[in-house]
Amino acid sequence: MRNFFILLLLLTAFVEISQSASKFCFQPLRKGHGGKRCKAVMRWWYDSNARKCKRFKYLGCGGSSNRWFNKAECRKECMS
To answer: In order of start, what are the domains of the chain with their CATH numbers?
Structure first.
């Protein structure tokens, strides 16, 4: 019975952590593509394997939604 409660507690904690992070945080890094109307800029993405935000050069168009304007925004969405 004790093991059941421990398992339930761990499962609840896992669900809570999973729901707190944005669904975009677990998308793979896709830098997008360039073009006439696409301006390359530096952005941040969340590396879910390393569990940290990393900087990358976004090519301006397309790409994944795992893309944040700054490190603070990335951390707020994916690490809180």
So the answer is: 2-79 (4.10.410.10)
